[in-house]
Amino acid sequence: MNRAQLEQMDPHMLMSVLNSKLRAGFESLEALMRANDLEEVTLVYRLKQAGYLYDEEQNQFRTQEATC
Fold first, then answer.
1. Which residues are paired to 61 by β-bridges?
2. Nearest to 17 by CA among 36, 34, 57
3. CA distance from start to end of the chain
4. pTM of the model as a whole
5. Strand partners, 53
6. What is the per-residue pLDDT across 38-61, written as a single tens digit (0 to 9) for each?
């Protein structure tokens, strides 16, 4: 996944892809971002605009309601 794909991907699909990658072997969002040379701030902001927040305990993006 590169920056261009990140910017163009539907945010709901993006959340699904990232959660799959997190489950597949990344211990944190930071590790996933480092491995793919992506900016965490940009990603978190994009998904927050679509209603998703990163839940560090669960190591996944979830709807804002589910994280409250």
1. 54
2. 36
3. 29
4. 0.85
5. 62
6. 888 988 999 999 999 999 999 999
Task: Specify whether the CB–CB gap between 59 and 22 falls below 8 A.
Answer: yes
Residues pairing with 60 in the sheet = 55
Q: Following DSSP, what letter does each residue of the chain receive, concatenated?
A: --HHHHHHS-HHHHHHHHHHHHHTT-SSHHHHHHHTT--HHHHHHHHHHTTEEEETTTTEEEEHHHH-
d(CA 18, CA 25): 11
The rounded distance, in Å, linking the Cα atoms of 7 and 14 is 10
